Amino acid sequence: MMSDQSANASTRAVNAPLVVILSVAAFIAVHVWRGSITEDEELLLLLTYAFIPARYLTGAEALYVKFPGGTAANVWTFATYSMLHADWLHLAVNSFWMLAFGSVVARRFGAIRFIVFSLVCAVAGAALHLGVYWGEMVPVIGASAAISGQMAGAVRFIFSRPSNLFQASRMHPHHMRAESLSQVFSNPRALAFLGVWIGINLLFGVSNSFIPGVEGQVAWEAHLGGFLAGLLLFGLFDRTVRT
Taking the complete model, does pTM exceed 0.70, yes or no? Predict the structure, then answer.
């Protein structure tokens, strides 16, 4: 007979926290609405809410292009770009990884801290992309930077027990001790995960994109910015008692 604890663990492995489900639902709703508008309206949408490094040009360079939204959009696009996705495959991939890694972080942080944490990671991803591609007109969209931060946050505790990754994901996150950065970088399983994650993103950088059906350049620098933010700032959001 399955114990109550085991039954609860199995349920948690299937059912994501409400904040994660609502986040994915919001991605889908925005994408459905985007598909219902005209091309001119979609262009206006991207110019207003996508993250575009050229928006931050000043002086004579800024005279060549004007973006809708003004100064306020200079601020909100650091976050709103994460609500837009290139196509259904892009949205599906991001939703899958949010359900997988965002769920364990959301259970540990709670809804409010999870949202703020994800927002900070999205902003960090946009900031690093801006530094690398200053003045570029190509827009950045997608929740990948925020989800990369969620992955990094999960790395800070999901490998702290000697169980495998699948078993750890079934446990309640509060039952897992958070590791310091030095412990993470001395944990072979955490290092293996970091190596795979960095390797995949380097492939994004050298080959633009190797995901079938995805066109255009993958903003791997934004992924890196979000991941670093999640890894380094995890402790500011974690209120779980260490045991």
Answer: yes
